[in-house]
Specification:
heterodimer, A: 392 residues, alpha/beta, D-Maltodextrin-Binding Protein, domain 2, 2 domains, globular, B: 259 residues, mainly alpha, MetI-like fold
Chain lengths: 392, 259
């Protein structure tokens, strides 16, 4: 009797397991997938009626057949209005999932996760992804709006010819300081080593940016892989340590605003946010150099809706849509047509965008800005250096 | 319960401990009404963030996902964990020690390791990442926690009560439902609460096993930290705290009435 009961229970469980196996079912589990459809809410875009852009009227553009787009990016990095406009134009539902660092996204895709159509890697992550063959080529013929981009920001070293990526936003990492608090106006990184800055500096919690800054201060290459040079950089960083009171990559601007720190190595976005709250914040590229970064749209190899991804890339480059990004986020826009459009349609935002070096760095600033490049195996050297440095 | 009143110093000490626990939450609630997007200094009272929350579809989707995953995984993990605990307490078999060690491994190993290995596992099986994979992962790491808590409760459980019930004519099922289960119910509930909390809170494992459209609340909030944690997050937390408070209050009142 007992064994019969056990056997029947096991059979039931096995049958249940078989019934519940997802197989290749495209639909999700019983709870209806996000009931949110993309109807247009009461708020209409500032420009009133949306004229069909010249790009979509061109006969050579293939209309995407997919009905969904799985966007995987940083949180709050793509304006909701942009996504809604895209959904309205193409009838494609956008799923926006988020990650909080390049490394996390890379780890997940490396381990084999698929289903994402569009990711937003930074420049050095693009290099890593290309080395591991994680991205698929994009067809620039399907992205005629590519011509709207400023040629200074296309055809960069990490993706010559833009075969795999489109630049989305860009910026710099440089020196921000509160001009009313610092004992003297810093003009070079070396100034920060002054004992007057003791306990008053904030640094990004980023091994490449801080080490790179130290290398630049020594007149060396920011992306050096020479162990002797890295050792020199480490010594320099250790000397700076007493002046650093905070390592923060998430919101270094907070300490600048509250006055807890006076200066530091921050992203341009942080500097712009700090400036909004405190007009005394300045942002300069010291004479030894500073950092440069690009975030790009890319399509993973395993993307199920690559056509929707291409359509989105093209759509996003339309000036009318591109300015939404600039209006909402404190970073720099590589789309020069969009900036012209912004000047004509939203002069106050254009004013504040062009006025501050964090969003609109002058040419000499840019000339000294150097990207973080993927250093392959030498990454372990940087890891070790950083661990030693932090442990001092 | 004794009728003696606790000494004053004990009462002060207890008050301080509660203060220590609750001050951050109180500040969190207060700042949900802060009229400053960066939420650094107090700039005036506003309820706009609750309105923003109301319209934020992503956060609502994430909340919905989190609740579904938490409830389903807790239910299943509690059942399996309880059964496992009962088996470990009642029987001895060859490989008992190995089974015990294996069962507790998910508690000990780093979450990143578990997350990535689960991801690789699902990819090997060609499973589409989504709510199902997250739920399965949560069940996997919740089972040992429930088993651990229930085993603690079972320790010192007198099997002779079960035997007495069966002597009196109850079969095994009846004994289980009418005798064993009610006795160990506090342990099961404690295990279930632990599982629920762990599931609601989980970041690393969920991150690796999530797929498009299956973002959970921890994933959403954590990725917001990268750029800007607006008071909208405070508003969301305040609502959660309120809901938990109300549930606990109702539970307490129900218990008082029954007593």
């Amino acid at each position: 009797m007992k064994t019969y009961r056990v056997a029947s229970l096991l059979t039931v469980l096995v049958l249940l397991a078989a019934a519940c196996t997802p197989a290749a079912a495209p639909t999700e589990a019983p709870p209806a997938p996000a009931p949110t459809e993309p109807p247009q809410p009461a708020t209409t875009s500032a420009g009133g009626p949306a004229p069909t852009s010249p790009a979509s009227a061109e006969p050579t553009l293939a209309k995407p057949t997919s009905t969904e787009l799985n966007l995987y990016g940083w949180s709050d990095y793509v304006p909701q209005q942009l996504l809604d406009d895209f959904s309205a134009e193409y009838g494609i539902k956008v799923n926006y999932d988020t990650y909080s660092s390049n490394e996390e996204m890379l780890a997940k895709l490396q381990a084999g996760a698929s289903g994402y159509d569009l990711v937003i890697p930074s420049d050095y992550t693009v290099t890593a992804m290309l080395n591991q063959d994680l991205l698929q080529p994009i067809d620039l013929a399907q992205i005629p709006n590519f011509k709207n981009l400023d040629p200074r920001f296309t055809n960069k070293g990490y993706d010559p010819g833009n075969k795999y990526t489109i630049p989305y936003q860009w910026g710099t990492t440089a020196l921000a300081y509160d001009k009313t608090k610092v004992p003297f106006e810093p003009k070079s990184w070396a100034d920060l080593w002054d004992p007057k800055f003791k306990g008053r500096l904030v640094m990004l919690d980023d091994e490449r940016e801080v080490t790179g800054m130290a290398l630049q201060t020594l007149g060396l290459d920011k992306n050096s892989t020479d162990p002797a040079q890295l050792d020199q950089a480490k010594q320099k960083m250790v000397e700076l340590k007493p002046n650093i009171v905070l390592f923060n990559s998430d919101d270094p601007e907070t300490s600048l605003i509250t006055g807890e720190t006076w200066a530091g190595l921050v992203y341009n976005g942080n500097a712009a946010l700090a400036r909004q709250q405190d007009p005394d914040i300045e942002y300069i590229c010291p004479k030894e150099g500073c950092g440069l970064w690009f975030d790009n749209l890319a399509v993973p190899k395993s993307a199920p809706h690559a056509d929707a991804a291409m359509a989105f890339m093209n759509f996003m480059l339309e000036p009318k849509e591109s300015i939404l990004i600039t209006q909402e986020f404190p970073y720099s826009n590589p789309n020069k047509e969009a900036l012209e459009y912004l000047k004509a349609n939203d002069p106050s935002t254009y004013e504040s965008y062009t006025a501050f070096s964090a969003t609109n760095p002058p040419d000499d600033f840019l000339a000294r800005a150097v990207e973080v490049k993927d250093v392959g195996a030498a990454t372990t050297l940087y890891d070790q250096l950083w661990t030693d440095f932090k442990g001092q | 319960m004794s009728e003696k009143k606790p000494p004053v110093w004990l009462r002060i000490y207890t008050f301080l401990v509660y203060l220590y626990i609750y001050i951050p939450i109180i500040i969190l609630v207060i700042f949900s009404f802060n009229n400053q997007k960066l939420n650094i200094t107090w700039k005036g009272f506003t309820t706009q963030w609750y309105a923003v929350l109301f319209h934020d579809r992503l956060v609502q989707l994430a909340t919905r996902n989190t609740l579904i995953i938490a409830l389903v995984s807790t239910a299943i993990a509690t059942i399996i964990g309880t059964l496992a605990a009962l088996a470990m307490q009642r029987y001895r078999f060859p490989g008992y020690d190995a089974s015990e060690a294996l069962m507790y491994i998910p508690i000990v190993i780093p979450e990143v390791v578990m997350g990535i290995s689960l991801l690789v596992f699902f990819v090997l099986l060609n499973m589409k990442l989504g709510l199902v994979t997250i739920t399965l992962s949560h069940i996997a790491f919740n089972i040992p926690f429930v088993a651990l808590v229930v085993r603690a409760r079972l320790h010192g459980y007198d099997n002779s009560i079960d035997e007495a019930a069966m002597d009196l004519g109850a079969n095994e099922m009846t004994t289980f439902w009418r005798v064993t289960l009610p006795t160990i119910m506090p342990g099961i509930l404690a295990g279930a609460m632990l599982a629920l909390t762990l599931s609601l809170d989980d970041y690393v494992i969920t991150y690796f096993t999530a797929g498009p459209g299956s973002t959970t609340l921890p994933l959403r909030v954590f990725s917001m930290v990268r750029f800007m944690v607006t008071p909208e997050v405070n508003a969301l937390s305040t609502i959660w705290v309120l809901i938990v408070f109300v549930i606990l209050l109702i539970g307490q009142l129900a218990r008082n009435r029954r007593a």
